[in-house]
Amino acid sequence: MSTPPASLRMVEVSGAEALWRLEGSALGRLVYPQRDLTVVRPGRHIWEYGRLVVRAPVQAAAVPLTATYQVDEVRVATGTGWTVTVAGPAEVITDPNEAALPHSLKGMGGAPIRRTLTGWTYGPHDTIVRIRPQSVCGFRLARGTAS
Known about the structure:
The chain is mostly beta strands. The protein is 12% helix and 50% strand. The chain has a single domain, classed as Pnp Oxidase, Chain A. It has a six-stranded antiparallel beta barrel with strand order 2-3-4-7-6-5. Strand 3 (37-48) and strand 4 (51-57) form a beta hairpin. The protein is elongated and about 50 Å long.
């Protein structure tokens, strides 16, 4: 007879820890409603000056006034990791000069957004979105004992 696996617990983390985890990652998912569906697109992101800058394969016209971005790191073998979700007003960066501005981020060497955030696709579906997070929610996945 096998031993039952330890249960997993989701432990809520502070907003500061959630933002720290978000800043330390690079990949996530842009989530927004479109017609009667919830659309999920892969994205690359950077955290800058209290704003989240995301590059995702989405048409600029489809980006709503409010968007959600979700990031996680889950270790399948151990069942541990974390997840962070932020939501807030979203705006498309349409000015090519702004997209080409150098951004002074740790380890980024002041590279322009388009070079810092390599795209998934190129063309009309390659959009840079700035989200001003109004809500931040984070959880750490931890192993626990079965109750």
